Amino acid sequence: MVTKLLIGVAIGAILGGMLGSTRSCETGGCPLTATPLRGAIYGGFMGLMFALSFGMSAKEKGIVEKRRDNVLIEKEKVMSEKLLILNEENFESTVKEGITLVDFWAPWCGPCMNQLPILEVVADRVSGEEKVAKCNIDENAQLAAKYGIQSIPALLVFKNGEVTEQFVGVQQADTLVDAMAKVAGK
């Protein structure tokens, strides 16, 4: 990311300096063409803005591309080892005992990607008996339908297999930890 920013600033400064050297502005009020120095400064700023508009690459965001025969199948965020990955085979056995926070998400959902680091914080803050898990709705559509998931991210707190709390949208760590503690009776 830093390399992109530096390249953007450098290219912008060079182009701005070149425009400034044309001295086509007679009044001196034109930011890019008054002097080469002003052109370089404004060009560098414009290059920085241009570089920032591209954001981070998938690799920098921790996105893994799954390919088969060199065709992109799926992109997904690398999951933390602290988070359980749920599917139709292990869902019921995971939530049937104790307290479990389940995030229903999809890899194409931007807010879901923003929720991931927050869930890692929650997983660090809860006790060993409480679990934090994720369930991909694209791969587990029947589970999403069973629990009435219509918007994601959707976060459900289960106690002994029953939904006790439900949130839609990105939630802060304190909100989720407090909800789990409330359900646990702490």
Q: Care to give the gist of this entry?
A:
The chain is an alpha/beta fold. It has helices at 2-20, 36-53, 58-61, 91-95, 110-125, 141-146, 173-184, and strands spanning 63-68, 71-77, 84-86, 99-105, 131-136, 154-159, 162-168. Strand 1 (63-68) and strand 2 (71-77) form a beta hairpin.
How does this structure look, described?
This protein is α/β, with parallel strands linked by helices and 186 residues long. The chain folds into two domains: 2-53; 79-184, Glutaredoxin (3-Layer(aba) Sandwich). The protein is built from seven helices and seven strands. The strands form two sheets. It has a five-stranded mixed sheet with strand order 3-5-4-6-7. A two-stranded antiparallel sheet has the order 1-2. Helix 1 (2-20) runs antiparallel to helix 2 and helix 5 (110-125) crosses helix 7 (173-184). 27% of the residues are buried.
End-to-end C-alpha gap: 43 Å
Question: What is the class of the largest domain in the CATH system?
Answer: Alpha Beta
Give the ordered list of helices and strands: HHHEEEHEHEHEEH
Shape: elongated
Tally of structural domains: 2
CATH superfamily of the largest domain: Glutaredoxin
Biggest sheet strand line-up: 3-5-4-6-7
**DSSP helix fraction:** 40-55%
Question: What is the count of helical runs?
Answer: 7
**Unreliable sequence segments:** 72-77
Helical/strand content category:
alpha/beta
